[in-house]
Amino acid sequence: MADDNKKQKPLATGDRTIPPAGAKMIAIYIMGREYMVPETLTIMKAIEYAGYQYVRGCGCRGGICGACGTFYRFTGDYKLRSGLACQTVAEPGMIIMQLPFFPANRPDYKLENMQGTPHEELRKLYPEVFKCVGCGTCSRTCPMDIDVMDYIALMKRGDLKGAAIKSFDCVMCGLCASRCPAQISQFTAAMFVRRVYGKHILPKAEHLKKRVEEIKSGKYEKLLKELEGMKQEDVKKLYVEREREPDLAEPGKWMPKDTSKL
Amino acid sequence: MSGYTPELKELIKKVEATRPARVEKARRGEHFPALTMDERKKWLDNYHPDFKEEGRRAVAVGPNIGTIMPEEVAFALESTSRLDTKKINLSKADYETDLLVIGAGGAGTAAALAAADKGLKVIISNKLRHGDSNTVMAEGGIQAADQESDSPYYHYLDVIGGGHFSNRPELVAAMANDAPLIIHWLEDLGMMFDKHADGRMVVRHGGGTSRKRMHSAGDMTGAEIMRVLRDEAKNRAESIKVLEFSPAVELLLDEKGAACGAVLYNLETKEYYIVRSKAVVIATGGFGRLHIQGFPTTNHYGATADGIVIAYRAGAALEDIESTQYHPTGAIYPEQNVGLLITEKVRGLGAQLLNIDGEQFCFPLEPRDVESACIIRECTDISKGVITPTGRFGVWLDSPMIDLLHGEGTIKKELPAKYIQFKRYHIDISKEPMLLYPTLHYQNGGIKIDANGRSAIDGLYAAGEVTGGVHGRNRLMGNSLLDILVFGRRAGLNAAEAAKTKSNTGKLSLAHVDKFSAELKKAGVKNPSVGPILLPDYAPEHVKTRQWG
Fold first, then answer.
1. pLDDT tens digits, residue range B434-478?
2. Cα angle vertex A234, ends A233, A240, to 5°?
3. B31 burial class (0-12, 13-18, 19+ CB within 10 angstroms)?
4. Which of 3.40.50.150, 2.10.109.10, 1.10.1060.10, 3.30.565.10 is the CATH number of A118-201?
5. What angle do CA B87, B93, B97 make, to 5 degrees?
6. Which of A216, B347, B358, B540 is the most exposed place for a label (fewest CB within 10 A)?
7. What is the CATH number of domain B6-50+327-439?
8. Is B347 a catalytic residue?
9. Cβ of B168 under 8 Å from any chain A Cβ?
10. Hey, of A42, A61, A193, which one would you mutate to test binding to chain B, going by the most B CBs within 10 A of its CB?
11. Is B392 a catalytic residue?
12. The one catalytic residue among B40, B213, B215, B347
């Protein structure tokens, strides 16, 4: 057994791929040039397997940062496809081009002192949003499957809440903007709308405001100082004895037996 | 090409063969016995990477000389500068500013915004794009005691208890105290928190919390925080200048040994730039991409320990750097999901861990570190791991048990994101098990700071995962997003105060780099590598052997 175990090494370490003997190799075309890579890899790992070291076009490697937006076609197929390189499996005949950056229109603004209504402000900052031709290419392009055209339509109508919620999963890769015939930077407009919604439309948390005032008045400083200075055994005792809020307690309703430390 | 390979499908039959009996037992409430306290210690000592002697050694130089730590970290700390200090001209700075922030994830951006609020000019040096960081990958949430039934007092107890009382009390107190201020700040910046209709924050429990205080923005809390902070920094372009793809490769000290800037390296043009500043904040994140002991990681591409390397070289002491958090269940198959975190909830719902024969080998809800040790033991000494087509090994997590125990559709309802992430690659986790292995998740230790983010070096501040002491040897969920913002802002504000009363005229020096090189030589460190490494290298052997030039 132990010897077998030794034979199994070296195993793949970190993110470097070591394909086993006999792994099926496929041809992919990185910016048009052919490379043979083992099947089942993501586009990102296939590109690294080919020998590239990323500087641009690679970030979280987990599908959330938007660094690795990628366009590709299959040889013999007219259809232009898109995806995130870290989330899309490389397939035979893929012709790949990453788009690590795309220039976007992003006017500065002051969230605090907006002059008009949010909708007016949007019109002033992003007049091009209102020139959307409704072709739907953005929605077909989005690697997060967001219906981009739909949230642009909501923006035009003044439904900023709808647009904020619809665009929430955006990773800001910019692929939508790169394909827009109306030259809209959808993802930066959506960022503006989400912040306006979060700041001016979503109701504020009153309990939070109250707690902030308490903290600023120094209410908890003494309690925390006491804890800081306590012997470890005493802190342990407090830790073990602390009451746990029931999982199903109603929001804001449950109170502990001992309220002296609130 | 999609789903499991025929070989793996064959192995799944063994899991399916033992499943009916295991489900029956689980229904009767019978579980695989948990380890005794003695066994736990033995398992940890022998198999947990933090406790194993193999792969760890004492660092040979610097402020923490003699501290036992992972080899990869010791190796990084013993690296030598990429600069030829004799060639570099320090007489003229390419950029002059009040505050230099190194690293622009959540902590760095928070520091920059805080300093800009105080009227300072800030330069942010960033290795990749603004916001490329572990911040964006934090899904679960951010803790803060802002409910009526809660207070910073209880938050403090939860944090320090979770850290096995190894945390530094002043840091825990600072974090618990500031938490509601941070949530309020984010709300004011227009972050889309999950809220009830009346504006009350939606809060949940997390592992080790006594009160529900986990705030969220969908399942992408960190990404939402990062894009809001980055957007705000862009609005302040008159005071915050961002230099992307230009990581810091050395700190600059003045004749009194105070930090007064850094040397940046443009990854694209290969130029070096001299930045002179009145104070410096380091917020470069963790070391996941050093792949401690070969582990895959949940970390982003740039997590290569740059900050601790350059700060250590300049004389900053580190705290708890030997402590690493491994999450027991990271996906190892399919390849595109490697490192993907599989939440504890899957095991909480009844899924069991199984070896290649479809047999249980541990209680599925041991503490994180113990569970990791059990899996490593099964795959190494016991040799009952499953090998994947890309040469990784791991164990099964029998997720189909969940629907059998709780009814059809439970997985889709309770674990929608995980269901989709596997379904995308034609694996239905409600029908087929997952393959897992522990994954490198978080750098518990780092640069030693006080509650104001100050390091041992005058003028040098640090915040976030690059620091140590806040979480001790174990961090609870929801406190890393909080940590980066609390100490990011504290570091930014305190650096701003210090910078206001300081002139920008000290003589720039890299003497500490020469001194460190001499120490390396004296300590007998042979062929030190060049550090910080800046980018991981994933080129395969067959390519490397042909890079003859």
1. 999 999 999 999 999 999 999 999 999 999 999 999 999 888 889
2. 85
3. middle
4. 1.10.1060.10
5. 145
6. A216
7. 3.90.700.10
8. yes
9. no
10. A61
11. no
12. B347
